[in-house]
Design a protein that fits this description.
six-stranded parallel beta sheet, binds zinc ion, 275 residues
C-alpha cells in the first residue's frame, strides 16, 4: 500500500504541510463558500494523519504489512506471550508456574537482558518455550533510523543464538510500533512481526484481579495474550502481580477448556487453514 522505506514521521510531515496549505486556502477564501475546498483538504489530511498514526500503534491491523495478532477462531487455543525479560526473579517464577501446569508460552526477550541472564534464556528454551526478539534496548523503532533498527534486531538475535543455538524467527517491536521501514527491515531478516489481541496493561501493575479479569473477559479462540515478565531495560518495577495473575489466568482458561500453544503453533494453524 505504501512505498517501502517510508517512515511514519515523514508521512506525517508531508500531511502537516498539506493541512497548512488547505487552511491557508480556506483562510483567504481562495475557493469561495460553500465549496470550502481548502478546509476540506485540511480535514482530510488530519484524518489521514490520524489513520496512519493509529495504524502504526494499534496491534491488530495490516496497513503497513502483515502482522500476526490472533489465530484462527475455529480452534480453542490461546498463546501466552511474555515481553521484556528475562528478569529475575519473575521470569523464574513464571517458568515454575508454566511447568506446574504443563503450559507452553512465548518469550519476547530484550537483548540487553538476554546478555545479563543467559541462565534464564537457557531455562526458557530447555522447557520447550518459544523465544522471540524484542530489540536490544527496547527502543521505539518509529524513532530509529534503519541502521540502528537493524543493529537492535541483529544484536538480539545473535545474543539469543549464542546462548541457545537457535535464532528467533518472530519479533515483537517494542509497544507494537511499526511503519513501512520497520516492516521491511523485519521482512529482510525473515522475521515475522507478532503483535497481540488481548492485553491487560499488566505493566502498570493495576492489581492481580484487574489483570486477570481484563484478560479473561477478552479471550476468545486464537487469542494472543500480552503479559510482561520484564520491565524494559530499566528492570526496576515489580512483576509480582503478573506472576500471580498468570497462575489464575492459566487455571481459569484450562477450566474453560482452552489449550495453550506457542506463537509458532498459532501461526502454523493460520497458514494451514489458508491453503
Ligand atoms: Zn516491551
Amino acid at each position: 500500500m505504501f512505498e517501502m522505506n517510508m517512515r511514519l514521521i515523514s508521512m506525517l510531515g508531508i500531511i502537516t504541510v498539506v493541512v497548512l496549505i488547505g487552511l491557508i486556502i480556506d483562510y483567504f477564501y481562495m475557493v469561495r463558500k460553500p465549496v470550502r475546498l481548502g478546509l476540506g483538504i485540511a480535514v482530510l489530511g488530519i484524518m489521514l494523519g490520524l489513520g496512519l498514526t493509529l495504524s502504526a500503534v494499534l496491534p491488530e491491523n495490516h496497513v503497513y504489512g502483515t502482522v500476526f495478532s490472533e489465530g484462527r477462531p475455529t480452534q480453542k487455543v490461546v498463546a501466552l506471550t511474555f515481553d521484556d525479560g528475562p528478569y529475575p526473579p519473575y521470569t523464574n517464577q513464571i517458568l515454575d508456574i508454566l511447568q506446574e501446569y504443563h503450559v507452553p508460552a512465548t518469550f519476547f526477550m530484550v537483548g540487553k537482558n538476554v546478555e545479563k541472564h543467559p541462565d534464564l534464556v537457557l531455562r526458557v528454551q530447555q522447557a520447550g518455550h518459544q523465544l522471540g526478539n524484542h530489540t536490544y534496548n527496547h527502543i521505539d523503532l518509529l524513532k530509529a533510523n534503519r541502521k540502528l533498527m537493524e543493529r537492535e534486531v541483529d544484536y538480539t538475535n545473535k545474543a539469543i543464538a549464542d546462548i541457545t543455538g537457535q535464532r528467533p524467527h518472530v519479533v515483537r517491536p517494542p509497544h507494537g510500533f511499526r511503519d513501512p521501514m520497520v516492516m521491511e527491515t523485519m521482512a529482510d531478516r525473515r522475521l515475522k512481526v507478532v503483535e497481540w489481541s488481548v492485553m491487560s496493561r499488566d505493566w502498570t501493575n493495576p492489581g492481580v484481579e484487574a489483570i486477570v479479569s481484563r484478560t479473561i473477559n477478552k479471550v476468545q479462540n486464537g487469542s494472543v495474550i500480552l503479559l510482561h515478565d520484564g520491565d524494559g531495560i530499566a528492570s526496576s518495577a515489580s512483576r509480582a502481580q503478573t506472576v500471580e495473575a498468570t497462575r489464575q489466568i492459566i487455571r481459569e482458561l484450562l477450566a474453560q477448556g482452552y489449550q495453550f500453544v506457542t506463537v509458532d503453533e498459532i501461526l502454523a494453524n493460520l497458514e494451514e487453514t489458508k491453503k
